[in-house]
Amino acid sequence: MLMNKPRLAWALTGSGHYIEECLNFLLTLDDVDLYLSQAAEEVIKMYGFTLNDIRQKMPVYRDKAASSPPVGHFYKGYYHTFVMAPATSNTIAKCVLGISDSLVTNLYSQAGKCRVPSIVYPCDIAPEMETTAPGGKKVMVYPRKIDLEGTEKITAFEYTSVVKSVDELIKTVADRLVFVAKESVT
Ligand SMILES: Cc1cc2nc3c(=O)[nH]c(=O)nc-3n(C[C@H](O)[C@H](O)[C@H](O)COP(=O)(O)O)c2cc1C
Fold this sequence. Notes:
By secondary structure, the protein is an alpha/beta fold. The protein has helices spanning 19-26, 38-46, 51-57, 89-96, 103-113, 145-154, 166-185, and strands at 7-12, 32-36, 60-62, 79-87, 118-122, 129-132, 138-141, 160-162.
């Protein structure tokens, strides 16, 4: 028997691209546990967020252990959905190779092994993109072939929905939350 209502697990990686938009959206949600890669922990500070402020709103798990103990939550039915947004080139490259050697890559892998749906927003979605540097300056970024191939490959993974814009991310998460809420009353 489940002791708690299932929650949403959300992982942030060290992608400056859309990190503010993702954080601003996820901070509006209830029943979320936030997971940070080591790089995310550094990058969110560069974009003006503090861990203490985020902790006022939701539990935050940092990447401090080799075996990623919190992934055990997936085996207890603690999470209905895993969101990995934004996902760096690095994290996507590892995930598509089946590597799970960090907290966030472990979460993606264990969500899949527990058949928990994942919503993934890779930072590399087009060969040419405008992005926001820390401090607000707009800069161009040109993802390489290998980065775009990673995005393509992860769309074919089981239990994975890949989104390609912030609007699509927000809609996909919102739809999923409605679906989960309906399921819990039937
Ligand atoms: C300010 C800043 C912004 C960054 N933005 C991106 C980005 O948009 N996409 C990306 O793939 N890497 C970006 N990086 C590099 C990643 O943080 C780095 O590759 C890191 O090793 C990723 O680790 P993770 O995948 O475990 O989070 C950025 C780094 C910094 C310092």
